[in-house]
Amino acid sequence: MDRFKGARSPIAKASLVYINNKYVKHGELEIKELFCMKELTNKIEENQGFVEDQLSQMNEMLKGKCPGIDIGNQCDTPYPCDFKDHCWSDIPEYSIFNINRLKKSKKFELYYKGIIEFKDIPDDYALSSGQRVQIESELTDKVIINKEGISQFLETVFYPLYFLDFETFMPVIPICDGTRPYQMMPFQYSLHVLEDESAELKHYEFLAKESIDEREELVKRLTSEIPDKACVLTYNRVFEKRILKEMSEQFLSYSEKLMSIHGNIIDLMVPFQKRDYYTKEMKGSYSLKFVLPALLADISYEGMAISDGGDAMNAYATLHSLEDKEEVKKIRGDLFEYCKLDTYAMVKLLEELRKL
Ligand code: SF4
């Protein structure tokens, strides 16, 4: 039966098959549960006329000249357009479009008034204090420091100090019992420790073996290394808190200890997020990757085989399929090195804030 016009092979039925993100694995993988299937034959049939109309309109458009449409909201909605390199070529790499947390509508409001660079923004244009700091620092090359804000943050930090960072991956096909597709699976952490002001810096780390579920071992080690009354510093606490909470729900015998760590977390990102410390090199961002080079030029992720969380996730996800033991050893070494730098960077950032 040929129900679809223009199809090169006869199609009797059309369905969309997609991952069921509610599926929880218990024992053997149940393929029928892992996928959802939605039959769309009638819907597709109904819409064939619409597609034909659209195609003929597009073909007409292609015969004409390039439409004179300026850049706008449409360039990123519903997703970034492939022609951005062409249409946005006159926009400088760093412009009003990089003002942090400024609504898209306000950016285009400025753009349509001919304002593209920071220097052209009127003094009375409504911006938040953080946005003003970003612009002022860029135009004057000044380092903005709010000592009172930094000092208030430092008062919340106490000893013993534990600097914590997790790495996670999100397998589409769940590999561990009790987990769903795309569930965040912690496989690594790095922990730097300062018992008191004059103590020597200690380091602990964990990296799960490939292809087995070592989350319980990770939780056991972590809860034995962090005492109940410790100050736990992370950079962007939302991520670490979410992992600790999920682990506490999964491994009930460690729940209390995990939630105690969860409750003791202080976010080192806060003074940078609040613009208590800002340099123009941060380019409006407060992520560690921008803050670090701005404050500590001698610590860098550049040149590292694994230099961000995405790299770490991909590297760990491929480990189980590698047969070359040397390659596995090398990647594991790269993972250790990367995660260790994340927490070491936090130690050094705190030192810098204290110097101020
Ligand atoms: S980038 Fe794409 S959406 Fe934006 S103006 Fe150019 S063609 Fe249109």
Report on this model:
- The chain is an alpha/beta fold and 356 residues long.
- Strand 5 and strand 6 form a beta hairpin.
- 42% of the residues lie in helices and 13% in strands.
- It is flat.
- It has 3 domains: 15-63, no CATH class; 69-127, no CATH class; 128-356, Nucleotidyltransferase, domain 5, CATH 3.30.420.
- The chain has helices spanning 31-34, 41-63, 84-87, 104-112, 129-140, 147-155, 215-225, 237-250, 255-263, 270-273, 288-295, 309-319, 325-355, and strands spanning 15-19, 35-39, 144-145, 161-169, 185-194, 202-207, 231-234, 265-267, 277-278.
- The protein is built from 13 helices and 9 strands.
- The strands form 3 sheets. It has a 5-stranded mixed beta sheet with strand order 6-5-4-7-8, sandwiched between helices. It has a two-stranded antiparallel sheet with strand order 1-2.
Keywords:
binds iron/sulfur cluster; five-stranded mixed β-sheet; alpha/beta; Nucleotidyltransferase, domain 5
CATH fold topology of the largest domain: Nucleotidyltransferase, domain 5
| Order of SSEs | EHEHHHHEHEEEHEHHEHEHHH
Largest sheet at a glance? 5 strands, mixed
List the ions, cofactors and other small molecules found in this model.
iron/sulfur cluster
How far do the termini sit from each other? 76 Å
Average pLDDT for all residues: 93
Overall 3D geometry?
A: flat
Structural class: alpha/beta
Approximately what portion of the residues adopt beta-strand conformation?
5-15%
Separate helix tally:
13
